[in-house]
Amino acid sequence: MARVAMILAAGRGERMRPLTDTTPKPLLCVHGKPLIARHVERLAQSGIELIVINLAWLGWMIRDYLGDGSRYGVSIRYSEESPRALETAGGIFRALPALGPGPFVVVNSDVFTDYPFESLVLDAQRDAHLVLVPNPPQHPNGDFGMEDGLALPSAAAQYTFAGIAAYRPEFFFGCTDGVFPLKPLLVRSMAAQRCSAELYTGRWDDVGTPERLAALNG
């Protein structure tokens, strides 16, 4: 189990407007608690000691709310991306110096889940491990398949990427600082059989729209 994690929190949250015009999406609340605070608490409970959070849109509000992490029992560092978010892979790549030389966990700030982070394990022969979930109504075709514990770009049964994963720094070999997406790197890793996967069937919601946020708070 990695002792380091990253929470992706730099996005503008366009689909959540107008809520995100004045509040960054990670600080939107489910039952009175910000989404990102739930992640910090659960990561801390799982044994994570250091959390890196990337910031762009209204990032100062996230920094002010979470501080240095001491009240959660963890150390929090911040990776700045202003004025423009670097997309998923670009954001992780910029944060690599803070994440250290070993494997680390990554979770999207805008998911609501009870996934047990302490169970997230990256095999020594893999550079990435993805958590997949059954396809939600808004994403019926899924993202990836899996077979014998390996992730596949496509398969007869497709599942949705949960936004929860573990990586080694080697996964980002050959990348340079800038804006770039995650999927091409995942496909490269899958082709080399370096990307494993698991299917999680517990609580998981993509808090992507005001309607889905309202449903969670209902």
Write the layout of secondary structure elements.
Blueprint: E1 4-8, E2 29-30, E3 33-34, H1 35-45, E4 50-55, H2 59-66, E5 75-80, H3 87-99, E6 104-108, E7 111-113, E8 128-133, E9 145-147, E10 150-152, E11 160-167, H4 183-191, E12 195-199, E13 204-206, H5 210-216
Parallel strand pairs: 1-4, 1-6, 4-5, 8-12
Antiparallel strand pairs: 2-3, 6-11, 7-13, 8-11, 9-10
Question: What this model shows, in words?
Answer:
This protein has helices spanning 35-45, 59-66, 87-99, 183-191, 210-216; strands at 4-8, 29-30, 33-34, 50-55, 75-80, 104-108, 111-113, 128-133, 145-147, 150-152, 160-167, 195-199, 204-206. The protein has 218 residues and is an alpha/beta fold. The protein has one domain (4-216): Spore Coat Polysaccharide Biosynthesis Protein SpsA, Chain A, CATH 3.90.550. A seven-stranded mixed β-sheet has the order 5-4-1-6-11-8-12. Strands 2-3 form a two-stranded antiparallel ribbon. A two-stranded antiparallel ribbon has the order 7-13. The chain is globular, with a radius of gyration of 16 Å.
Count, helices: 5
CATH class: Alpha Beta
State the helical fraction.
10-25%
Mean pLDDT: 94
Keywords summarizing the entry:
218 residues; alpha/beta; Spore Coat Polysaccharide Biosynthesis Protein SpsA, Chain A; two-stranded antiparallel ribbon; 5 helices; 26% strand; globular
Provide a concise account of the structure shown.
With 218 residues, this protein is α/β, with parallel strands linked by helices. It has 5 helices and 13 strands. Strand 9 (145-147) and strand 10 form a beta hairpin.
